[in-house]
Design goal:
The protein is of the alpha/beta class and 612 residues long. It has 22 helices and ten strands.
């Protein structure tokens, strides 16, 4: 998955690899300075060296010979002590250069690391906005939140933080291995037989770590769902004295997460000691094998070269340890990556057609033609619905809970696609229109006013670009909202809190109506917009709705009689079908389903037509 996000940061990747390569080369050459110090200055090697050109022998022999030649020349010219000081100064300079380029390699990987994490979050948020509502009916909100927070954080902590190690350590290992082959390919071949054995052991532990990590991240999603449900239902929890039940439920979830987290952390903590043990064991075997060859006189290299060989080989150990730790961390992060990819890879069935149709001369006639739909296709919620809403007409849907009223309304803006039949606007199937164009024709006012933790002004202008202050105030006045808005601390600039919690139900609903008025849509969907209001608020909201509905094609999901008494057509739904249709007076004369609903409302004190 990361390959999708790396290309914008190729520049940083190339710079990182370049400085890592320089750091590795400087490490190898800085260690090479130690050999002449040991051999010549302390009289280990007495051989006299003459200058050799590349044509005099193999590259390896020429490089080594000329290195000793120049060292001998320095001793003769400056003396042993000064040569020692010069070599020490060269070692310090090379080490300084090495640490400098090592810092630069990390410096250039940081924008790549943090940029990829930012891009993953942005891609996930964009995908959540694009996915259909049906996706979130099968996924827990808390689990989706956990993937955007906990899983992305785990990707950052494990995979992204390991990028430096991933790009630095292999370069160091490759350069050191090349140097070891240069010194003795036979001994290096023996080493390369040992290293894969250690890698197999590390890999088996890593696979189990990924499996445990996936279980832990899934459990974290469950915990996030618990928290989301608790915050959303806190009033009910307290009203039913259910704190103990919810506490026990949450404690059980945290205990499972605690146990899984311990297993993951313990297995991850095994990486460093295991790699250190295997590295030390490998060095011991190489020391025994190479030392035996030198003592027997069969070795292709001498003792000083073997010391340098061991120094270079030891230089591989720390990068190998870091690489093994990175591999463990990546196995853990891959579990989170897998969960994130379930969202990024989810398919959206609500797509724009290739040959989309634009409505030129909009009239506003809506037709449901034999529509059948079910969230589970085997169990339709609405079945064989045919309905025509003429331009400027108000059609009301009434019926008991579960009869399919809201589902029928949700099919019009393509929140879901019908499984049989079709829906047309001015004779054009809505599936042949672009989704954005279709929804731009519609305004929604729902039973629960969906507001955001922002200013009143921004909530009214939500989804409407370039609205002026005068237009916003005019919409608020039509919605009977201007007076209470001006009574707040900062008027239209007042922040209303999470979901508008600082406002009453009637005030929230009037803001959502003002938002629909400002959008000025030709088609209006009212989903039980007054069902949760007291009588005084209902009157103010109903006045605002009457103004909003004027000269618009309107589909009303009715809850209160006052909303639908003057509807052009009332459709009574029962078990997913329209069983009666007509005006208020016509349906009362039939004495059927509608009459029983009205009588139920009357028995309920005249407040409701049917339970939603």
């Amino acid at each position: 998955m990361l390959r999708r996000f790396v290309p914008p940061y190729k520049k940083y990747l190339i710079l990182n690899l370049t400085f890592n390569l320089l750091a590795a080369l400087l490490t190898v050459f800085s260690f090479a300075v130690i050999i002449p110090i040991l051999e010549i200055l302390f009289k280990i090697r007495q051989t006299h060296y003459d200058y050799m050109s590349l044509g005099d022998g193999k590259l390896r022999d020429v490089v080594i010979n000329d290195f000793y030649y120049y060292t001998q020349q320095a001793i003769e010219a400056w003396g042993p002590a000064n040569t020692l000081a010069a070599l020490a100064a060269v070692l310090v300079v090379m080490t300084g250069l090495k640490t400098g380029v090592t810092y630069l390699s990390s410096y250039f990987i940081i924008p790549m690391r943090s940029g990829i994490v930012r891009d993953i979050r942005n891609f996930m948020y964009d995908k959540i906005l694009r996915l259909p509502i049906s996706f979130f009916t099968s996924e827990r909100k808390g689990d989706v939140m956990a993937r955007m927070t906990g899983d992305v954080a785990e990707i950052e902590a494990s995979i992204m933080s390991s990028l430096d190690m991933l790009f630095k350590n292999p370069v160091m290992i490759i350069v050191c291995l090349a140097t070891m082959i240069f010194i003795s390919w036979q001994l290096t071949l023996f080493v390369l037989v040992l290293l894969p054995l250690a890698g197999v052991l590390m890999g088996r532990v890593g696979k189990r770590l990924k499996r445990r990590s996936l279980e832990a991240q899934n459990q974290w999603g469950v915990l996030m769902s618990f928290i989301e449900e608790t915050l959303g239902g806190l009033r009910v929890i307290k009203a039913f004295n259910a704190e103990g039940k919810m506490r026990n439920r949450f404690y059980g979830g945290t205990q499972s997460f605690y146990e899984l987290s311990n297993r993951v952390a313990r297995r991850q903590s095994l990486a460093h000691p295991m790699s250190e043990f295997l590295g030390t064991a490998t060095i011991a075997i190489v020391l025994w094998f190479g030392g035996t060859l030198i003592l027997s006189g069969d070795s292709p290299i001498n003792a000083p070269d073997f010391i340098y060989y061991l120094v270079i080989f030891y230089s591989i150990i720390n990068p190998a340890k870091d690489l093994s730790k990175a591999a463990y961390a990546i196995q853990k992060g891959l579990a989170s990556m897998e969960r994130v990819d379930r969202i990024l890879g989810a398919q959206n069935p609500i797509k724009d057609p290739g040959d989309a149709v634009e409505l030129r001369d909009f009239k506003g006639e809506i037709r449901y033609n034999g529509v059948t739909f079910g969230y589970d296709p085997a169990n339709p919620v609405v079945e064989d619905i045919s309905l025509t809403i003429k331009p400027g007409e108000t059609v009301a849907l009434v019926g008991q809970s579960g009869s399919g009223k809201s589902t029928l309304a949700d099919l019009l803006p393509r929140f879901y696609d019908v499984q049989k039949g079709g829906i047309e606007i001015d004779g054009v199937d809505i599936r042949r229109m672009k989704v954005h164009s279709l929804r731009s024709l519609m305004g929604n006012v729902n039973q629960e006013a969906i507001l955001f933790n922002d200013t009143i002004y921004n909530n009214i202008t939500f989804g409407v670009e370039h609205a002026t202050r005068e237009q916003v105030e005019a919409a608020a006045k039509i919605a009977n909202a201007h007076e209470f808005i001006m009574a707040t601390e900062e008027g239209y600039d007042t922040v209303i809190g999470d979901r508008g919690c600082r406002l009453s139900g009637g005030q929230r609903q009037r803001l959502s109506i003002a938002r629909a008025i400002l959008k000025n849509p030709p088609v209006l969907i009212l989903d039980e917009a007054t069902s949760a209001l007291d009588s005084e608020s209902e009157q103010l909201v109903q006045q605002a709705l009457d103004r909003l509905m004027a000269d618009r094609t309107t589909l009303v999901i009715a809850h209160r009689l006052s909303t639908i008494r003057n509807a052009s057509q009332i459709c009574v739904m029962h078990e997913g079908r329209i069983v009666e249709r007509g005006t208020h007076d016509e349906l009362l004369k039939k004495g059927g389903f509608y009459t029983r609903l009205v009588e139920m409302q009357s028995m309920d004190g005249g407040s409701t037509l049917a339970e939603s």
